């Protein structure tokens, strides 16, 4: 893949991943904070699921840029696929992935954790992953 193609892929994917994150943050505002907890589990779960999808998009792009072959579109990629491949490339990114998977996917989406600090940590790690594909000029 040429440098121009890489930059084009980064721009497209970064913009889309950030759109997911923007939608997730907007949804999370509907969950209303009171003290250190969100008040509406439905919105927290929806926001965490949306943010996690944005991260998966960024991870797919990151792996493509690192010449990792992705499974066919019709085949679902497991967390193990991401962990195995990311661990070979970047140990710090693996920590971000573990946080995002645990906090956003499991605790936030499946369990509906309402703790503001926990969810914020998941969003922070999501942004850390998405920043790995940030193009030189985003146009965003």
Assembly status: single chain
The level 1 CATH classification is Mainly Alpha
Chain-averaged pLDDT:
93
Structural domain count: 1
How many angstroms separate the termini?
23 Å
Element string (H = helix, E = strand): HEEHHHH
Q: Measured on Cα atoms, how large is the radius of gyration?
A: 15 Å
- Relevant CATH superfamily: Nucleotidyltransferases  domain 2
Number of helices: 5
Helix content: over 70%
- Could you say what the CATH architecture is? Up-down Bundle
Report the structural category. mainly alpha
Principal-axis shape equals globular
Low-confidence stretches: none
What is the topology, as strand order, of the major beta sheet?
Answer: 1-2
CATH topology: Four Helix Bundle (Hemerythrin (Met), subunit A)
Would you report the number of β strands? 2
Instruction: Please give the largest β-sheet.
Output: 2 strands, antiparallel
DSSP strand (E) fraction? under 5%
Short summary of the structure?
The chain is an all-alpha fold. Helix content is 70%, strand content 3%. The protein has one domain (3-133): Nucleotidyltransferases  domain 2 (Four Helix Bundle (Hemerythrin (Met), subunit A)).
Annotate the secondary structure layout.
Blueprint: H1 3-29, E1 33-34, E2 37-38, H2 41-65, H3 79-89, H4 91-110, H5 116-130
Antiparallel strand pairs: 1-2
Helix pairs in contact: 1-2, 1-5, 2-4, 2-5, 3-4, 4-5
Describe the fold and architecture.
Helix content is 70%, strand content 3%. It has 140 residues and is an all-alpha fold. The protein has one domain: Nucleotidyltransferases  domain 2 (Four Helix Bundle (Hemerythrin (Met), subunit A), Up-down Bundle), CATH 1.20.120. Strands 1-2 form a two-stranded antiparallel ribbon. A hairpin with a 2-residue loop joins strand 1 (33-34) and strand 2 (37-38). The radius of gyration is 15 Å and the shape is globular. The mean pLDDT is 93.
């Amino acid at each position: 893949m040429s440098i121009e193609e890489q930059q084009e892929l980064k721009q497209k994917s970064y913009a889309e991943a950030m759109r997911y994150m923007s939608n997730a943050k907007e949804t999370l505002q509907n969950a209303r904070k009171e003290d250190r907890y969100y008040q509406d589990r439905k919105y927290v779960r929806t926001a965490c699921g949306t943010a996690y999808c944005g991260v998966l998009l960024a991870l797919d792009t990151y792996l493509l840029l690192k010449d990792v072959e992705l499974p066919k579109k019709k085949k679902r990629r497991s967390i193990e696929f991401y962990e195995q491949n990311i661990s070979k490339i970047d140990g710090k990114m693996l920590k971000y992935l573990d946080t995002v998977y645990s906090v956003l996917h499991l605790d936030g989406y499946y369990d509906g954790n309402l703790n503001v600090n926990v969810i914020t940590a998941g969003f922070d790690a999501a942004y850390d992953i998405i920043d790995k594909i940030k193009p030189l000029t985003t146009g965003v």
